[in-house]
Amino acid sequence: MKTTDLVLIPETVHGTPSGNYDGSSLDFDGTRQKASDYYVSRIGTQSVLFSVDDFIGDVVIQGTLDADPEADDQWFDIYEFPDDSSATTATISYAVKGNFTWIRAQVKNFTGGTINSITLTY
Questions:
Q1: 41: how many CB neighbours lie within 10 A of its CB?
Q2: 39: helix, strand or coil
Q3: Can you tell me the distance from the alpha carbon of 50 to that of 66, in angstroms, rounded to the nearest whole number?
Q4: d(CA 111, CA 36)
Q5: How far is CA 52 from CA 16, 37, 61, 71, 86, in A?
Q6: In sequence order, which ranges of the chain are alpha helices (DSSP H)?
Q7: What is the rounded distance in angstroms from the CA atom of residue 43 to the CA atom of residue 62?
């Protein structure tokens, strides 16, 4: 079976512009990616891999069932990482269950550290 790996947020260092992050904002959205149900319905499980160093902030994984979401109110929260407000260094995987068509990551309150990457696999 073929595995699909997609980047939700590439390497992002606090204070350095990269991707959708302007280097000074506390909040930004990663790249939305087509989830497993966009192509093949009923898979239902995807994995999100978080890799961070001294990260201070929150990452909210969001999904949608819409074919082409254009507005923020078409997205809903699935999972939030980490579960505390201290600097976090970790590489963890979380199983996201649901028949989502799109998945994205939102970073909130980003005040320090590095996001090495946040990826989606199915």
A1: 10
A2: helix
A3: 25
A4: 32
A5: 15, 27, 15, 28, 13
A6: 36-39
A7: 17
Q: Is CATH 3.30.530 the classification given to domain 5-121?
A: no
Please tell me the distance from the alpha carbon of residue 97 to that of residue 49, in angstroms, as a whole number. 14
Both structure tokens of 65: 């069932």
Letter for the amino acid at 46? Q
Amino acid at 111: T
Q: What confidence category does residue 43 fall into, taking pLDDT thresholds of 50, 70 and 90?
A: low
Percent above pLDDT 70 for the chain:
94
Give 99's DSSP letter.
-
Residue 41 has pLDDT above 80, yes or no: no
Q: What is the pTM of this model?
A: 0.91
Q: Which distant-in-sequence residues (6+ apart) come within 8 Å of 73 by Cβ?
A: none
- Any idea how long the chain is? 122
Q: Would you list the domain boundaries of the chain?
A: 5-121
Supply 77's token pair: 């929260």
